[in-house]
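Below is how a single chain appears once it has passed through the pipeline. First comes the sequence as given, then the structure the pipeline wrote out for it. We keep one example in the README because the format questions we get most often are answered faster by looking than by reading.
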Amino acid sequence: MLYGLVQAFGMAGLVIFTAGLALGITSALLMLIRKIEQNAGIAIGLTALGIFAMAPVLQTPRPWLLTILLFIIELDILLTARRTGNYRHLLLLLSFLRCGQISIFSSFTGSLHLWFF
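Resulting structure:
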């Protein structure tokens, strides 16, 4: 995945990939915390603390940035379903996220274990 970005866009592709996913992780984490904590100041502070803790990981152009983003989205879906009690579309949406994760990381050995967790 990253090799294709370098081939297509050069080093600017890596910078755009890393910055875009870091921004996506930050916004997804803020949205998740905002659903739990209604005070905006506390939510922003907790998000800043989380991003500060993940800073070494967010600065490297690695495929696990997409895994972190998908995990935050999945956790948001699970917590929303638990809070609202609406489980109708939960299985379909979680299956879609798992299929996306498996198709992205299918080059890794043993990626089929993702279906069972």
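The mean pLDDT is 81.

See the next section for the split statistics.
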